[in-house]
Every structure is written in structure tokens, then in C-alpha cells.
Amino acid sequence: MKKKINIAIDGPAAAGKSTISRRVAKRMAYIYIDTGAMYRAVTLHAIRNGRGVIDQLDDLDIRFGADGTSIYLNGEDVSADIRSQEVTNNVSEISSLAEVRQYLVSMQRKIAEDKGVVMDGRDIGTTVLPEAELKVYMKASPEIRAKRRLKEEKERGIDIDLETLTDQIIRRDDLDMNREISPLVKAHDAVLLDTSHMSIPEVEEKIIRMAEDLLRED
């Protein structure tokens, strides 16, 4: 059987984790898991039904589509809904709840049991998959991340200015880095990649090379 590894990619909001993880997974024929989308799906569920539903997470059905980019909540495609401004404004708070993290971390670990997974998030290398063979921590300045996010939002037809996005990203960084449970922090054995002045193909190629080096080891 061909050897496989798990790849954990962490970093702050809008660091390019999802884009890079998706491309790396496709190149390696691995499964891509967007943990941020999972937290957004739970946040959407709480917004729609009230915070009380957090106590009934076992009743939730969260699944990814075959394309690896769409996500379904109780059978409904919520890929677009989870990217709404309301979800964005609330996801950090919902993500910090112990019961939410426990529920989703358990699900994420189960998915990765058979290896061959590229998983991105904020605590993958430290909490979810601490034994992942390759850990990468991506970073870039808030201003650069805001410019990247602005381009994405404009492509989705969302009208928002750069200053607002920069403020949102700085606030999200503060919440993620200072939350009590699984704060955003670089794993001690993660490779630090400052992508501020790197293109998407450059980042992808660097991670692919590191993964291939590991796979060649006995």
C-alpha cells in the first residue's frame, strides 16, 4: 500500500490556508478538510435556531460534498450561507465554546484516521492532529491578508472596504490568539511560512516538496 501522511496547515484568518490546502490535496490525491467551514456551519445553525442548539450538536449532520468545496448542514448545501457577514461576525465566539470544539475535533480526528488528509484551521497541528507528519504555519501581515480577502469578497459581489476588512482581521486574530481553549499558536514542530510576498504556486510547491521528502523517508 502506498504510504500516506497527514498534513496540518494552520494560520490566522485570510492567510491563504484553504486555497493552498485545496491545491496541495488535489496534487497529492488526498482528502481536503476545511475545518473553518465546519465551524461556520455550526455558527450558522446557532444563528438560525438559537444558542440553545449548541447543547444538541449530536443531532447535527455536517458533510462535505464530493468536490471537497461544498458543505452540507442537515442535507442543505450551505456553502454560500456560511460565508455571510453575520456568520463571519459570530464564528470566532461560537468556535471558542468548549462543546463546539470537542464535537468538531472528534469528527475531524476520525476523518484523518486513515491518513492521506490535508486539514487546515487554527489548531490542527497543536490540538486536532498533533501527530501529523507535516505541520505548516502560514502567516502574512493583516494588511496583506485584508487585500486578499477584499479580492475574494468582490468576486462574490460583497461590497466592503479595505479598512473594515483590516479591522475585522485584526479583531479576529486577537480573539483567536487569546481564547481559552485551543488558541491560535504555531506548533513547536511546524514549518513557518511567511506568505506575504509569495505567490500561491510558490507556497503550494514548497509544501509539496516537504511532503514528498517525508514520503521518501523510511
UniProtKB/TrEMBL annotation:
Official protein name in the record: Cytidylate kinase
What organism, scientifically named, is this protein from? Answer: Salinicoccus roseus
Q: Which family does it belong to?
A: Belongs to the cytidylate kinase family. Type 1 subfamily.
HAMAP family for this protein: Cytidyl_kinase_type1 (MF_00238)
Which lineage ranks, top first, belong to the organism behind this chain?
Bacteria, Bacillati, Bacillota, Bacilli, Bacillales
Pfam families listed in its UniProt record: Cytidylate_kin
Q: Cytidylate kinase domain: from which residue to which, for each copy?
A: 7-212
Reaction(s) catalyzed by this protein? Answer: CMP + ATP = CDP + ADP; dCMP + ATP = dCDP + ADP
Its main localization is: cytoplasm
Q: Which NCBIfam families match?
A: cmk (TIGR00017)
